[in-house]
Design goal:
78% helix, 0% strand, mainly alpha
């Protein structure tokens, strides 16, 4: 998400379109947070559709957004921005809800903080260490192909699909690992979600009265 502006430049999109991409990510990030909460609650209440399975579907959908960028499908960055923004917002709403349902509220603040720490940690590893490194390496290749030498302190500019292809393929692979973990959680919690998950909260409320 943080590199969409640079991705747009690398793929040759005009400045106006790049601004649109960034706006789309922010808007759909918000819509993902709001709609995923309502949708997962409705599906759970009416159809006993487990929230971890909803998380798995969101992660799978985000893979399609990553692959659209990785393979540079023409004019796909608009769609990819919507998908990535929506899925990023949706997954956090669902994750924090799952934490409260499975582990309860006693240590929720601690678990919330631990889960929230995953975002900056992943951003550092995937954006800085992996994406940044691969971008710079491809930019250096392009400079060498033109017979140019990088001056000290000079910013690197990379043009083309190859600038981000490997990085987004790695992100897709990482997301697929998350899907597998989520599927395991679906299997391990299927009895819990087919039952009355709010029973213990009602009982606690009655005892307090």
């Amino acid at each position: 998400m943080d590199n969409l502006g640079q991705i747009g430049k690398a793929l040759g999109y005009p400045t106006k379109s790049i601004t649109t991409f960034v706006s789309l990510v922010s808007i759909w990030n918000y819509l993902g947070k709001v709609s995923s909460g309502f949708a997962s609650e409705i599906f759970l209440a009416k159809y006993k559709f487990p929230r971890p399975l909803m998380l798995t579907l969101v992660l799978l959908l985000s893979c399609s957004g990553h692959l659209l960028i990785a393979f540079g499908v023409p004019n796909s960055l608009y769609v990819a921005s919507v998908i990535i923004g929506f899925c990023f917002g949706a997954q956090w709403t669902i994750i924090f809800t799952i934490i409260s349902e499975i582990f309860g509220l006693k240590y929720y603040s601690t678990l919330y903080s631990l889960a929230g720490a995953a975002s900056p940690l992943a951003a550092y590893i995937l954006n800085v260490r992996i994406t940044g490194h691969l971008y710079d390496r491809e930019a250096m290749k392009q400079m060498a192909a033109k017979g140019l030498v990088r001056k000290e302190g000079e910013d690197l500019t990379c043009i083309g699909v190859q600038c981000y292809k490997m990085a987004f393929l790695i992100m897709t692979g990482t997301t697929m690992i998350g899907c597998i973990v989520s599927c395991i959680m679906v299997i391990r919690t299927r009895k819990f979600y087919t039952g009355d998950i709010y029973k213990k909260y009602r009982e606690q409320g009655n005892l307090e009265r």
